[in-house]
Amino acid sequence: MLQEESFKESDEEEIVKDHHPSSLPYLQGSTFASILEDTITELRVLSECNNELRIAKTISDMKLLIALKYGVRQLPVTDELEKYLSDVLSSTYVGLSVNRSFEPLKEYVKKWLDEKTYRATLAEDEIRNRGIRHDLNKQLRQQRNYIKTKIYETDTRSRYVENWQRARTEQHLQTIYDKEIVPSRVIEYFKQRADYEQRVHAEVELLTNIRINETLEKVESWMNKYDTDMEAIDLKIQLKKNEYQDMFDRRLEKHDQMMKDWIHFKEEREKARLYREKMMNSAIIIQAWWRGLLVRRQLGPYKVKKKKGDAAKKK
């Protein structure tokens, strides 16, 4: 019991603390909060499930959606009325749920009335500014007409002065032309003559250059021919030189071979002569020995002949 009484006292103290002069009873506040909660839920469901509204909104925001699709940067765009209504209902629901009062709704209403008064003031200022702008535009047109008038007068005066000055200028130019026409014609004649001489000189120089170029081309061709012929002649000379060198080498080799053969022949001849001389000397020695032997032994032709008387005696 004591605990229940203490809880009741604490609840009463909290109710007294939370009590606000404009607060509603708990039952009424909860009822209004439930109604607003259902309203907020229905609005959200309606905004999420209303396909026709979504299609209409998509069609109206087609340019923005295309820009967002292709990455074009856009300023943030919101549905002000829907956002405002959602904020009002949400704030009122929170106020009824927490404080059981319509203070947020009063603040929004007061704010809306202040904005309405401010807009009315702005409308009055706009009307007054339109009148002032109309007067200023009228003064501006008058000033513009005045400026145009002054400009026209100034242009007229300057036009007359310019025409007079132009006439004087033309007169002076004609006088100068009359004074300078004869010298100008003489100058033009000599200028044409100089141009003619220059053209003749250019043509002669061109022909001379052509002849010089042709001569240079011929000289170059003859030099090329000379170089080609000299190369051919040098080649022939080199070939002949090589041929004569080969022939000289062959003759030299042949001469060397002949000299070697002659030396060999002389050596062989000398050997044969020495051999014959040796054989001759040997034969002479042998014949001398043989003859001496025959003589000593009285053989052969050196045999002693017997006398005829001696032979008969023997018989």
Automatic annotation (TrEMBL):
<keyword id="KW-0969">Cilium</keyword>
<dbReference type="InterPro" id="IPR000048">
    <property type="entry name" value="IQ_motif_EF-hand-BS"/>
</dbReference>
<protein>
    <recommendedName>
        <fullName>Dynein regulatory complex protein 9</fullName>
    </recommendedName>
</protein>
<dbReference type="Pfam" id="PF00612">
    <property type="entry name" value="IQ"/>
</dbReference>
<dbReference type="GO" id="GO:0005737">
    <property type="term" value="C:cytoplasm"/>
</dbReference>
<feature type="region of interest" description="Disordered">
    <location>
        <begin position="1"/>
        <end position="21"/>
    </location>
</feature>
<dbReference type="GO" id="GO:0044782">
    <property type="term" value="P:cilium organization"/>
</dbReference>
<keyword id="KW-0966">Cell projection</keyword>
<keyword id="KW-0282">Flagellum</keyword>
<keyword id="KW-0963">Cytoplasm</keyword>
<comment type="similarity">
    <text>Belongs to the DRC9 family.</text>
</comment>
<dbReference type="GO" id="GO:0031514">
    <property type="term" value="C:motile cilium"/>
</dbReference>
<dbReference type="InterPro" id="IPR042618">
    <property type="entry name" value="IQCG"/>
</dbReference>
<keyword id="KW-0206">Cytoskeleton</keyword>
